[in-house]
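Preliminary data (for renewal application), zinc ion complex.
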Amino acid sequence: MPEPAPVSPNLPPCPACTGRLRPWFVKRTDRGDYGVCRCRSCRSGFVMPRPPLAQLAALYRNPGTVADPDRPTSTRAVGKPGGAQRMAAWLSRLAPGPGVLDVGAGDGLQAQALIAVGFAVDALEPSPAARARYRQRNGVEPFNGFLDEAFVATRAATYDAVLLSQVLEHLADPERAITLVRQLLRPGGIAVIAVPQFHSWLSLLSGRRDMFISPPVHLSFFTRSGLATLMRRHGLEEVHAESVTWFDQARIAARARPPALGPALVLALRVFFGIADAAGGGNTLEAYFRKSG
Ligand SMILES: [Zn+2]
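Predicted structure:
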């Protein structure tokens, strides 16, 4: 029997589509217990209630917080190689000009690929360790801070593209974040959102053991339709989306028993994820949205 979730019965509307949320389960972590809900309409999932903002701010300013905890160095994209370069190529096709803001820029890998194809990149990053690595890689220091009203006030309608790669799932208030993204964009500008894809094939197989359900780090679990609805409510229409699976091949191979089966296990997963990507069921969703005039 599924355990009842001790979340508030007065759940807010779905942060993605404003539909009705219902309790799903309680995620127990070493930082505490978190209620997880799912939307009856768009099927996205959310941690409710949200953790206190002060706790989240401390989490991301902590020098020990790695730039991108989701993506170890042995991780590779499976069905659609190229990673950062592929996203830069798509943005070259879609963005009306060269000005990009990379929100939560991490160690600057994506910015490097954008700069290489001619984009002028501003970056925003709260973690001192990540800013130092960004500076080593790209020669400039990101702005220190979070996406907030003060940052946007002096930069409204100045960017041709705003990138949130593995960021939106971390934020307590996606509605506010997308409101600010829209304000930053010029008419015709592109918002790029990359998030773990809830209800990917692996996510469906994993259920409540989905590796991306990791509060307080991850708080929102977007389906493609949930994300598209959130963006559309802010005048941002999807113009391209693809699913891309990343997995840590070295870690998977090391887990195989007997160890000699490691290469066969990795090969089998590459086939599985390759088909999932082609069918839109890959682990990560990379989606591009255009701001209407
Ligand atoms: Zn919803």
